[in-house]
Fold this protein.
Amino acid sequence: MADMLKFVDRSQSYPAKRDATARAADFREIAERYAPPAAEDQAGRCSQCGVPYCSVHCPLHNHIPDWLRLTAEGRLREAYELSNSTSTMPEICGRICPQDRLCEGNCVIEFTGHGAVTIGSVEKFITDTAWAEGWVEPLVPGPARGQSVGVIGAGPAGLTAAEYLRGHGYDVHVYDRHDRAGGLLTYGIPGFKLEKPVVMRRVDRLKEGGIVFHEGFEVGRDATLAELRARHDALLVATGVYKARAIDVAGNEAGGVIAALDYLTASNRKSFGDAVPEFEDGSLNAAGKHVVVIGGGDTAMDCVRTAVRQGAASVRCLYRRDRANMPGSQREVANAEEEGVEFVWLAAPERFAVDADRVTAVRANRMRLGRADASGRRAPEVDPGATQDLPADMVIKALGFDAEELPHLWNAPELGVTRWGTLLVDPKSLMTSLDGVFAAGDIVRGASLVVWAIRDGRDVAATMHKWLKAKARAGEKVAA
Ligand code: FAD
Ligand code: SF4
Ligand code: SF4
């Protein structure tokens, strides 16, 4: 323990953030990496709690104190192996988990006033080092079982399940409607939070491990669910949630009023070097424009910060509650403010002013907070008589996502859904109402977090493995 418990005389130190002006000019990640021995020093601040609340509040229940101790002792390879034993992408979680709400927000030394251990940054450092040093092992499939699994959706839930199932020896086929795997890691989350090579090296490792990817393959268009069920012994639906919530105000259909995910996808495609006509013609490019983003979640934060990087003339974020009641991470708000974004709290659009079919301004109502709603947050209501006009030639709607109507789109009316349209699964087996069809990630829990998608992928791989083994045994009995 000689290297540990240093939190009293060693202050909390995150890796330095790049200067706000410099980082607003590119799409590189904003944080520098820890330079050795900073990660080791920071890991040594951990007090090695008997009941580690950091792990309790990590959805993956990562062995945090143990890999912090190994890091502090300079045993980085062992730290990597332990960290990797509970997560398929620790370096990605280290970058984009809202640690202030999860592991770090529950670190006991945060409550003693010394500042949490910088868990996420150390986690990122460990696995980035493993990649650099060549410690990340190839995916080795288990002995072939002669059974095949289809995974619909190559986001973190689908990729995680695919990795574990391949490790168990199944033939795994992943179908995704995009031309690149990764789901929102690839086309939603911008490079300044998660650089794309970090995602692609994970995907490449899975491809090299024998997982077959069918990119540009949309279930509902290129095959029905029934056809895929006939092709595989079991199916996993991990399609995420993509139906953008609508906003019902006058001017909503005008030119320049765009959907957040269209905007972010175009920007991410440009980062890959793709030709994107809607970006080239200006429809999905904020350069030189007065931009207003509507919403207060992670997606809205990503949009405002992307607009800054594209060279917008001004960027405002309109949110109907106040700062304390917004769903987005406070760290992201601080980053956005540093980069020049103006937040207009307690404001909601009444209508969009339009000239010659193009948006010119947002008329916003002032809001006030009433009683707490079902979510526990105070519900916003219009404060009568107080409006303001914000000039805008691009308005980005970032109001959240709901599930698409899969039973209808996939011609599978017997696929059970909740009243929110998410897929109904048995809580123990994680199977949907269709035999052998499982589901995981956002399509089950609604819009959530990457770390929860990974957890769901891990859990569903275990239940699918159990079910597939039972199916194989039943087949052997019949044959006998
Ligand atoms: P997804 O990542 O959505 O992947 C689903 C995949 O299924 C997609 O690739 C899609 O193309 C494919 N698909 C859908 N329908 C079909 C079909 N019919 N046929 C074939 N393929 C199909 N979480 C964090 O933890 N930290 C963050 O900083 C963060 N930032 C975010 C920023 C944005 C802009 C958004 C939108 C979300 C963010 N999230 C963040 C949430 C996080 O990205 C999701 O919770 C997570 O990606 C869900 O994983 P998933 O595998 O369930 O689905
Ligand atoms: Fe923290 Fe997320 Fe890593 Fe868990 S996965 S330790 S919550 S950063
Ligand atoms: Fe270490 Fe904090 Fe976790 Fe305790 S809660 S084990 S101090 S990281």
About this structure: The mean pLDDT is 96. The radius of gyration is 23 Å.
